[in-house]
Amino acid sequence: MALLEAEAIPALSRSPPHLSTSYLSTSTIVALCVFFTLLCACIVIGHLLEENRWANESITALVLGLCSGMVVLLVTKFHSTKLLIFSENLFFLYLLPPIIFNAGFQVKKKQFFKNFTTILLFGIFGTVISFCIISVGAFLLIGKTGIASLSIEDYLAIGAILSATDSVCTLQVLSQDETPLLYSIVFGEGVVNDATSIVLFNSVQTLEFSKLNAVTALKLLGTFLYLFFTSTALGIAVGLISAYIIKTLYFGRHSTDREVALMMLMAYLSYMVAELLNLSGILTIFFCGIVMSHYTWHNVTGSSRITTKHSFATISFIAETFIFLYVGMDALDIDKWKTSKASAGTSVALSSALLALVLIGRAAFVFPIANITNCIKTIGSCKIEFRSQFIIWWAGLMRGAVTIALTYNRFQKSNDTTSQECALMITSTIIVVLFSTLVFGSVTKLMIEAVLLRHPKPPVSDLTNISDDLRLLFLENGDPSDQGNNNQRFTRQSSLSLLICYPTTTVHYLWRKFDDKFMRPVFGGTGFTRVVHGSSSGEVEEIS
Amino acid sequence: MALLEAEAIPALSRSPPHLSTSYLSTSTIVALCVFFTLLCACIVIGHLLEENRWANESITALVLGLCSGMVVLLVTKFHSTKLLIFSENLFFLYLLPPIIFNAGFQVKKKQFFKNFTTILLFGIFGTVISFCIISVGAFLLIGKTGIASLSIEDYLAIGAILSATDSVCTLQVLSQDETPLLYSIVFGEGVVNDATSIVLFNSVQTLEFSKLNAVTALKLLGTFLYLFFTSTALGIAVGLISAYIIKTLYFGRHSTDREVALMMLMAYLSYMVAELLNLSGILTIFFCGIVMSHYTWHNVTGSSRITTKHSFATISFIAETFIFLYVGMDALDIDKWKTSKASAGTSVALSSALLALVLIGRAAFVFPIANITNCIKTIGSCKIEFRSQFIIWWAGLMRGAVTIALTYNRFQKSNDTTSQECALMITSTIIVVLFSTLVFGSVTKLMIEAVLLRHPKPPVSDLTNISDDLRLLFLENGDPSDQGNNNQRFTRQSSLSLLICYPTTTVHYLWRKFDDKFMRPVFGGTGFTRVVHGSSSGEVEEIS
Description:
The structure is a homodimer.
Chain A: H1 26-48, H2 57-75, H3 88-106, H4 109-114, H5 116-144, H6 152-161, H7 168-173, H8 180-206, H9 214-249, H10 256-276, H11 281-299, H12 302-331, H13 334-340, H14 344-376, H15 386-395, H16 401-411, H17 420-454, H18 463-478, H19 485-501, H20 503-523
């Protein structure tokens, strides 16, 4: 079969021969039916449990997946639980891109870029630190459990695999309006972390580690930086091209559908081109999403804006639910558990060790990095308080689909050669994913509410005032004719001191000026939108 | 690979080893990149050629597909042209359902049901007549060309395959507002024809034709009627369930995305369940679309309405373009042409014969059925004039993706056993599809404009008045207390005579009464929509 590699369930695959629609295999249809029914159930149950303090959509999907895996196990009499084989292609080609694109498309750009340095520190350096600690820890601990056949590459892969966090659970609880700083850091770190851990994983797979020395580390760094910058540039380029095409050709005149189709296709194309050039598709499509929401989105008709905003969110939502369902069902695959041949004790010991490494590896960078940024920052409200640090730490404890996908990629090269150790690594990772998502995930809502509500946030910062000051100053600078000399000197002095004190804000302000003057006239954007007859702009909420 | 079965292109599949992202195969990515680039190109070129008299979107896609097939042929030095293998699964599982669902979702229901009997006559009886003529004709003609190895089943399959029309080209030209009768007949016939020919094809595949007698014919009819009614009922049931769920749970309160996701998933689920029960998924999803647009669509928030309307149309548009692109690229697959081993003369002769059968088979039912309906109908404006008959005939001459998919299904069981005759049948069908789409398709716009413009339509019918009369009459009947006896008797008489004279209108009126009284209070619909704060209903255009 095509998209979903189904395995026939003997009990169900016999169709009455007199009416068989011969062009579709029954096992495929059964698998698709089950999955779509479960997806619908997830949505309805998720809606009903909206007010529940313990559940959320991902946990619902995971539990439903586990339950249906159990049912399949019982129906087939413990013969096979594979309704679907976990396919990395399905995950990396069709499920991950819409999720990441939507993340870029819906991100509050102002907040994201204001905390850009902090996000990069957490997302890149933090992930690398976590990668190192987990790799070294795994090397030391797993050796003691008697598993000897793993190579250095395997340990490094484990480090990369377990560094990939899944902050969906936390993001569902945090409010973007009440705690903008915390939300943007957790959200941004999640995206950058995904990209970083996948790039790390790929680097580990391709570099030679026969002699581990400084040159290899430098190569790793070089590869990483190369991937980061080229991928970002590609994403921005594709986004700008889409904006330019839609602005120039003015599609809305004829058809809303063409605009929406072109946006979807070009976003997906950016991912594919990045993968073709062996760059990081995730970073590319993320930045493509940001650029599209900043320029392209403003060039289309009102209907297209509503449609793109909601349909991207819907597709991302379905993909996310599907992944959790998938992971849940896949966890009960009995063959893997048989192959691993490990006693319950070994499994639990190994999983606990990995989980402990995850906890330590995350704590080892969240609190130091947060305190370092606090020292650098001068404005009080931008500092990350201890309770925020705790939530950031907590948000990154869950492990999800990226972890599963990378584990399969590393430890299940082909079905025949799966050794005992590899199977054990897969099952242990599954235990870590299930435990962290179910246990940590269900406590998240309660905990965050407790931490945040008992200590209400201080009032919103006065950054807007500073921004106003800057605008005033720069405007005065730009138009000096009607200003006295004294005034001007004073102005220059303040702008310089402001630039030193609030570098991010200043960069942001300068970017806005550049954007208004050069980018928007070419690529469109707020203020350069055509007035479309019949579209009510009140319906369209601002994304930016 | 997963969704698209790519074949590695030797020249492109070598990726630099130092940076290879190991989790995706390069051939898949190359294929996806090419296809998405071509899709974007199709949209842009289609937009630029909007005003062109010869081109339309499907022809653009087909030609682009042919060109890129040619490029692949040259790049690989005539080694392989298969960037993608035409996969029936891909077509029937992922491309056809959204197209048919969107057709049901966007159909003008009033027009569609007003001409329901005519549509069914054309779609079912017409297709069956065409099926018989083409089968018999193929049996008589192909025997003469020296091809002897085809069985009776093969000839019947050819009949079913070549009865599947593709009226996309014509529908792009016809205007739903200017010629509502013509549009609804062509559109409705297209959908019913798809379903009928696929059901015929499946019946042919499964029934035993060792002894061709009256019992077999009756069985065929029985199977057909069973499939038709159960499939329709299933589609209506799923649509009503979705309406009920969304109305009762009131999803919009929390999330627009959930509403949209549930509508998408349940629509797709209806198709899958129908296929699982060996019914006709096409009919099911079509009626599911109709019910969803009549009930479910009115229960969701304003944003969801815009989103669903446009996103369904967009997905359908992409799927349609993709199919034509696919068919174009697939046509140049050199292996098939090699296998057929036929001289150019034989190919041309066979294709011409099939094309002639298509022309005759269609003429044989369009004009008789149109004249029969004209005799039955009493209102002048509802009669199908000769120039409309001509356009209906013309609209069904093009052959498209369904034809290709069914041909592959029948004549390419597996790559090894493809005999010479089967390969010849495949290539001949491809020639018929290409010729009819490119030649007939490019003339369509000019021809329809010529036929319709030179003979402007008569003014719109007075059917609305009749409907008003009926409403008045029935209302008076339902509330007899304030009516005199004489009046009432007169009323009853007229309503009875009206029922006899205009059965469709009366049925429609009675349905509206039933709908308003019993269905809408339970399943929602116009007039029972909640007022959603912040949504401007002016933005939402009525579908019904």
